[in-house]
Amino acid sequence: MKIGAIRNGAKRFTSVHQSLTFSRRMLLTGGAQAAVGAVLIGRLGWLSVAENERYQLMSESNRVQLIIVPPRRGWIIDRYGKPIAINRSDFRVDLIPEQLGDVEQTLTTLAKLLKLSVDDIDRILKDLKVARGYQPVQVAENVPYENYAAVTVRLPELPGVQPMRGFSRFYPDGPAVGHLIGYVGTASAAEYEKEKNPLLITPGFKIGKEGLEETLERNLRGTPGGQRVELTARGKLVRELTPKPDRSGATVPLAIDSDLQEFAARRLGEESGSVVVLDCLTGDVLALVSMPAYDPNSFSDGIGRTEWKMLSEDPRRPLLNKVLNSLYPPGSTIKPMGALALLQNGVEPEERLFCPGGYRLGNRFFRCLSRHGTVDMRRAIAKSCNTYFYAMGHRIGYDKIAPMAKRLGLGQKFDLPVVSQSFGTVPDSEWKLRRYQLNKKLIERPDWTASDTLNASIGQGFLIINPMQLAVMGGRIASGRDIQPRLVGVGKEPAPLLGIPPEHLEIVRGGMWQVVNGDGTAGASKLQLPGIEMSGKTGTAQVRRIAVGQRGQSGDWRYRDHGLFVCFAPSANPRYAASVVIEHGLGGARAAAPVAKDVLTFLFDRAKAMESLRALEQQWGGTLAERTARRAAMIKSAADARIAAA
Amino acid sequence: MISSAIIPQPLAKLPWRLIFLIAGIAGIGLMTQYSAAGGSIRPWALKQGVTFLFFLCVAVTMSWVKESTIKSLAFPVFGVVLVMLILVEMLGFVTKGAQRWLDVGFIRLQPSEFMKPAIVLVLARFYELLPVGDIRKWRAIWPAALLIGIPAGLILVQPDLGTCTMVILGGLTVMFVAGVPMRLFIGGATALAVAAPIAYAFMHEYQRRRVQTFLDPESDPLGAGYHISQSQIAIGSGGIFGKGFLNGSQSHLDYLPEGHTDFAFAAMVEEWGLLGGLLLILAFGAVIRWGMMVSTRAKSRFAQLAAAGLSATIFFYVAINLMMVMGLAPVVGIPLPLVSFGGSAVMTVMLCLGLLMALERQQRTTSKLV
Fold first, then answer.
1. Is B295's CB within 8 Å of A26's CB?
2. Chain B nearest CA to A103, separation (Å)
3. Residue A94: phi, psi to the nearest 5?
């Protein structure tokens, strides 16, 4: 068999041909080999000379890695420099995934030494799966020294385990500052995606998650340092090169008086409510308390499922900042504001009205609290006479009252570094029309009616506010200044005047003085201090419509009326303004005013205030710290029981 | 050749220049392995040194084998290696796993390694037996194609693409120098060039990705391109003079994978720079040139073809490895003979060199007689 093409072209092939062909082919082969050799040498030269710089860089970036040293978070201190949020040195244990030997065995040993739960192990395994190279994975933080020491001792048999000293956030006042300060936590995947900062995924690094910790994050975070290290491809540390030091976050001073804050939190006891204390000249927020509150310390350590469940299911809503995010009908607390509006619109303060126990509008009878007889403006405030404000409000119309409400801060969103604030409603005819067009089901008719005015005049109906606004209103009436609440830093200058005639303010303050110091509604809460008097106004807010024979004064806790109180002191020369709201506390005079009395007393005479607090705390079963500890123990036993059951 | 009265004849007659060359190359290899082990003769350098010395002795001993013996053994040896290849395949089938070696108790035999010189010898023998006038005929081609194709196929299914390529290339070189018509080679090369893009079009996604990785290793620096990228970083970062002995960060910090085996050249160049690499390439070039000279000086057709094929085998070893290490060829596991750690490559190359020395000694003895 032959190939046609070959045969056609072939002459007779002799051994001479063969030897010639061989020489030629050998030459070709040798030439090709030499050519390949030249290409190889050329390539070698290209790589090591022409590309040398680029590859040297790449080799260097291979060799040297930057390990982020997280900065220490800045402190948060109060107006006198007392720490509110600080860092505590603690022990932590991390894993370097690449250096791990037998993962299962290591984790079993660690679980025993550190008392890790099944949840923890699950989390670590999940983290290990996504961990890259030398990026450490957290095993546990806040490790007690004995456990830490136990791990350190057994280090030789635990390759890849890295016990370290770290820092954890600590809030000495615990729940008292929970809602104010918030807490810190590990950055979530979404937060990392947003910022793309490798610092966020460094184990042990926490960012602010709530409250001031979140809103002041930029000030508090600081700049991370870098530890330049030479690492093997497996992440093993060969040697440390020159480090770049980290810079701690800035210390942020607050306007808060942390002693007052703590006292107010303790004084609220087991009630669900809030206290706001303002400097009524500068607007400094001296206390911002919402109770019950979570313990930010347990959040910052990573809160357990059981604790979270208990917190979120508590009817007193410990996860809600009631100062800014709870809205209440202000009830009678806005009567001083109403009075200012009346004065501005020409109502004579001496004009007298007869209160027969209510006010008739058409065929409806709007009730007063009792038959007050003949009242003028001061007396109407002191006795909280609805009839007077019904009649006068009806006379001038609510559209004339609403501007004064806004001027005093109601319905206003304050410029505060907070995560969120609900600012409520100051209604008027225009607002009602707008709401009606927005949602015809919620509001029956578009036009503002006389009964709307009557309801709003006594702080019910459409009018809703938050406790911060209530305190600001109190402060603005007390000083006549346009104060803006301030949380960060200490205000030096008094706020500018509001421009409300001083004689008007004097009349209203007089009425508020009578509330506490005359025969008014809060007579029982008179300050027991020589030469210092408190003025105020009580309020009771209905939680639901009054059923026949039941005024929200009894029955199920969650249907009881809220008690509100707004006040300032000293009456003669106002310096502090406060608002107290006790949810379902039945009434302002009964529930809120006594708290306000003690809180303001604390500002002038700590010993006296503490004395009355001690007596109360004995009834409640211990101080706030003791009760928090007891609750934590309860949560722990519940969590243990849950784990045992599972 | 060293000729002196004091040195005994048999020793003086050894090709000392070649022995010094390969000893030098092996020395570079040992240093690279010493460095790759972090400055220790364990676990690689010592073992490699012993292996090298053993096979050097084998090669020198082989140099006394007569050409006629080699010639007569060509077909039987080829047959035995082929049977071993089949045995390996069957064993792999039984144990349900890829297998490349036969365990004969004291040593693990890798028959595909023996096939590299065996294919050269058997083809040289075949073309010697072929009548002179038949070289341009079909009968000069199909037996050779079978002789290459069967072992190559067996090795390919092991699977060992690198060795398979080497066997085919070694065989083709013998066919080429034997005088098989040029147009077949040109046609074959053209067909390959045309087929490659078409084959690419029919490839699976993962196969395409491999090709892409070869063409642009940095597109996948942590995946398949990792070896090539890191190897080039090692070579490139060495510069002209290198980072110095025991100072190669790429290999010492484990960024360069296989720094003591397939990528030993990269590890060496990182520390010794362009100069070290150049020296090594030139040394290999000299060895191959020596082999080619043996071929051109050979008196018999068998010796011509065998020497050319054996030199080519060494050449392909070196060239494919260096191209792979420097990113000119895809990563196929072919070690750099005498430099990479591993006994089989040393064995193969020293067998080739032993055969070449035998053929060379034959030339000298015959030339003396003539």
1. yes
2. 22
3. -120, 165
